[in-house]
């Protein structure tokens, strides 16, 4: 295993961790205050796609897998956001 491959794997997991951290919706400071899902969704998807793109470059992921994971990740984020605010 080369150093470049190890760095790629570490970067992939860091980006995936950041993406998962962005799934957690912000806590409202006032009662009844709601936050939109879209401002949280865009950076979350950017980090997820960057993580999976590194896996594609290492030939451990396919484009179809990336699309499926992005769709499922978005659905999970929407479900969490819906559960928290409604």
Word description of this protein:
12% of the residues are buried. The chain has helices at 3-21, 38-57, 63-85. Helix 1 (3-21) runs antiparallel to helix 2 (38-57) and helix 2 (38-57) runs antiparallel to helix 3 (63-85). The chain is built from three helices and no strands. Helices cover 72% and strands 0% of the residues. The chain has 86 residues and is mainly alpha-helical.
Task: Give descriptors for this structure.
mainly alpha, 86 residues
Entry summary:
By secondary structure, the protein is an all-alpha fold.
Query: In total, how many beta strands?
Result: 0
Residue stretches low in confidence (pLDDT < 50, at least 5 long) are none
Taking all residues together, what is the mean pLDDT?
88
Alpha-carbon distance between the two ends: 48 Å
**DSSP strand content:** under 5%
Main β-sheet description: none
Instruction: Specify the overall morphology.
Output: elongated
Structural class: mainly alpha
């Amino acid at each position: 295993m080369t150093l470049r491959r190890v760095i790629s794997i570490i970067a992939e997991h860091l980006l995936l961790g950041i993406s998962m951290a962005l799934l957690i919706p912000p806590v409202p400071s006032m009662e009844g205050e709601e936050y939109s899902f879209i401002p949280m969704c865009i950076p979350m998807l950017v980090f997820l796609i960057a993580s999976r793109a590194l896996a594609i470059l290492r030939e451990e992921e396919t484009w179809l897998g990336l699309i499926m994971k992005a769709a499922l990740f978005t659905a999970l984020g929407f479900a969490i956001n819906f559960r928290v605010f409604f």
